[in-house]
Fold this protein.
Amino acid sequence: MKLELESVPICPVCQGKNFGVEVKCVDELVSKAHFSIVECANCGLRLTSPRPSRNTIGQFYKSDQYVSHSDSKRGFIHWIYHIVRSIALRQKLSYIRHFSNGARLLDFGAGSGGFVSFMTDNGYDCVGVEPDADARSVASLKYNIELQDPSILDDTRGLQAFDVVTMWHVLEHTHDPLDLLARLRAIINNDGLLVVAVPNYKSKDAQTYKSNWAAYDVPRHLFHFSTDSLTKAATLSGFSIDKIIPMRFDAYYVSMLSEKNIGGNILKGIINGFLSNANARFGNSEYSSLIYILRPLKPYKAT
């Protein structure tokens, strides 16, 4: 695989230019190449830099092991992933019903379409957006739904506003997260909500596995958020945080995957997942992944 990488000279959240190398990680999924993660000294946002460009990032998703795109159930960890996903779908439905009365929903980064299909079956008027053509094909074959290319957001003048927009572990994959957040703000009703789920590099499992933490997932994950940096990004994009909800299953899944990557013991991963959740619950609230319920700060004015 030929690596064509680009550096990120300026932090997209705070415009800072002072970075320190925090961790060096290996792409365990596709290329086995090494990538550096740097941290902005000002806001704490971590970035994969150098990173693949928009034109070359797609090759790093071409793996049957990437379950959100392939829908593969081969292997114990992927089997567990699909069991947990069925439980998580019901939890997500519950959260959305609690925070919104609206029924028009857009899921950005829909993967193979499981969430869009589930929400449609539960009465929502859904649009799914997915940049990967192979994932869109899986959605068509498995769920008989047509996911859209992100280009539908290029001109939103004819796009009806949404009550809810969701991004489940998607923002960290984007090359310009603030631009995407602002574009999504343009299609959300003023009393609507944006739901963003991202990994949290300040969690106990991240501290345990360090450079081997599976949720760094370089180079597919281009950004690595803490609560502080996600809050700042949301505010700059026209949102306020209504609620932060832990994703407790993620600590187990990520820890098991981390153990797999280092040739360790899956049982040890389960134990470390439990310890991470316990540390968050009784200590610092730094869960492995967090769901942010965002509300528009003010009425959006098109420019």
Notes: The mean pLDDT is 91.
